[in-house]
Amino acid sequence: MKNIAVFCGSAVGNRAIYRTKTHLLGKLFVENDFSLIYGSGNVGLMGVLADSMLEENGTVIGVIPQHLVDVEVAHKHISQTHIVDSMSERKMLIDKLSDGYLILPGGYGTLDELFEMLTLNQLGIIKKPIGIFNIDGYYNKMFELLDHFVAERFIRSEHKELFFVSEDENELIAKLKTFEPKETRKWLEDFKDTKF
Ligand code: AMP
């Protein structure tokens, strides 16, 4: 595991813990020789993470659509920037460059990226680790919602295991290093046999 894509907020949230934990994660990335692949922003938790790694001479690679460069939210001091035409192209390139994913607190953009990666893993199109850094329980209510979806049988219970969660940054780093992908083919075969 070397290149980790991080999806996180373009805001910093309302409490200092989101920034301090994100900053700490950046230091650990560099200590563990992880490169960061991310949305290239200089704003919010994205900016905090990139700056934390740059302070330690870490490798930070940004992928950003032209329209966001135009509104000057692109970080100007990172190791490498890929400029693409659209948000979807950005997601595809981020996926191509990454060995695994980490999701930090964020809003619609972050959730969109999380759920797309979960869907691709569910379909077996990608087999990469997806970790959620649940800083101070930020995502607890989302997990309750996902439990509801499982109870109502729109998400298979085994697909809750497509991601791992921790409030502890060291545990997440360890899991990213030791991750073994789960086989999802069986689900696809069952799905074909399902009568609607
Ligand atoms: P959000 O969670 O809605 O704040 O959106 C953050 C996610 O969407 C990030 O992981 C980025 O990939 C993307 N994104 C949203 N806004 C920006 C921005 N101003 N600059 C760069 N990326 C952004």
CATH class categorisation: Alpha Beta
H/E element order: EHEHEHEHEHEHEHH
- Our estimate of the beta-strand percent is 15-25%
Tell me the total number of β-strands: 7
Overall mean confidence score, pLDDT: 92
Radius of gyration: 17 Å
By helix and strand content, what is the structural category?
Answer: alpha/beta
In the CATH hierarchy, the architecture is 3-Layer(aba) Sandwich
List cofactors, ions and other ligands.
adenosine monophosphate
CATH topology, by name, is Rossmann fold
Low-confidence stretches: none
The description of the largest β-sheet is: 7 strands, parallel
Oligomer: single chain
Structure description:
This protein is α/β, with parallel strands linked by helices and 196 residues long. The protein has one domain: Rossmann fold, CATH 3.40.50. 46% of the residues lie in helices and 16% in strands. It contains eight helices and seven strands; from the N terminus they run βαβαβαβαβαβαβαα. A seven-stranded parallel β-sheet has the order 4-3-2-1-5-6-7. The longest helix is centred in the N-terminal third of the chain and has 16 residues, at 16-31. The model has no long low-confidence stretch (mean pLDDT 92).
